[in-house]
Amino acid sequence: MDDTIARRRSRHSRKKTRPVPYVLAGGIALLILIIVAVVALSTAQVKLVLAGGGEMTVEYGQPYTEPGASASLLFFKADVVSQGEVTADKLGSYKITYSASFFGKTTTVERKVNVVDTTAPVITLIHNDNAFTLPGHTYEEEGFVAEDNHDGDITDRVQRMVDNGIVYYYVKDDSGNETTVERKIVYNDITAPELTLKGNATVYVVTGKDFVEPGYTAIDDAEGDISAKVEVTTDFNKNTPGTYTVTYKVTDNYGNATEVTRKIVVSNAQQQQPVGDPVGGVIYLTFDDGPSQHTLRLLEVLDKYDVKATFFVVGTAGIGYLDEIAAGGHALAIHSNTHEYSEIYANEDAFFADLYAIQEKIYQRTGVLTTLMRFPGGSSNAISKNYNVGIMTRLTKAVEERGFTYFDWNVDSKDAGGAKTADEVYQNVINGCRNKKASVVLQHDIHGYSVDAVERIIQWGLANGYTFAALTPDSPTAHHPINN
Ligand code: ZN
What we know:
This protein is of the alpha/beta class. It has helices spanning 2-15, 20-43, 295-304, 322-327, 341-344, 348-366, 391-401, 422-433, 448-452, 454-463; strands at 47-50, 55-59, 69-73, 76-78, 80-83, 92-102, 105-116, 122-125, 144-148, 152-153, 159-163, 166-172, 178-184, 194-197, 202-206, 216-220, 224-225, 231-234, 242-251, 257-267, 282-288, 310-314, 331-336, 372-373, 405-406, 411-412, 438-444, 467-468.
């Protein structure tokens, strides 16, 4: 045991005595180390790292911010040089090249930057708060604008579709970004219906006769013809003379209501002298188309012989002498307000508007409510065919339904045609009346020569046992055959 320790000690002390080989070995080691380092440096590559990666996406219009790059060789840092740029307001792909050099070694890396448009266009709807779409009607476009961040105004590319109360607007930009917006159509109706009365605002009814409704139309902007919805109420009483009101009211589906009224005047008809039992026949002298400047003279002649006649008056030219006619005990009767064939025979409504207008004029002027009438041209006229086929067939019924009595004639004085002198008129009349039990004589008091014939006609009639009388609703009507 003691011997072993001694040997080790001896070996140790031997090494300390030879230091030169250790220095040499250290130098060799260092050399090897340097060689290894040089070899490592000469074989290593410069490492280049791009922050943000090799491919980047930038939204169109947004600025491109360079994320940078770093380079190193082993544990040495190297400088990075970049080349290339990105134009952010132009779509496309851009390349940026990064390079770093060290110890004569260069590494180059590329970055791809894509400038893209992923922003959808914006559709702005124009809306007017006071604009409504009528129920059941087509929506009227209030307007819209489509704007895109890249393409600009693309309103003209908008596609529109209407379905089930909604308008759909669709647009796509050049990059394929799509936008759809919707508009809910607001349906409403704020306009009241239009209620129009046919016939006159005031209707005259002889006591005891029915009021015949001349008709009405109700048109609504949304619903069209809603005449059937009109409610008619009245306090009319046919048995008591007085003024009554007919109220017409119509309401549309949105509660808009319209109300109009019409007046009914109930009045006793003019009283006529009863006709006695004539020895010969009865002659009803009738005068159309007046009054005129010859009427007063005619009234004087009639008065002189106490002869009553009938005046079918026309509403034009001032219609003078109505009071004188009524005061003389003659019958005031309706011929026409305008006597314009093309107007009055255009349709039934036009005819009755004209008829009631002249009836009202006579009533206003004289207080006489007359229901006696004669059609311009007579009921047999064919002229009306030019304006409305079949209208005489219908009117002759319609006037009677409305309480009028129409008269034609069975003795024509021809003062509107062949007869041009008082003598011719006189001859035509007495030839026509001869041997007739009832003569309804047609004359026109607008022709002086016809008026001139009247005194001789009366003298002839009285001398031959005839009686002269004014027409009443019960007199012979001398109706003609209808030709239209
Ligand atoms: Zn006439």
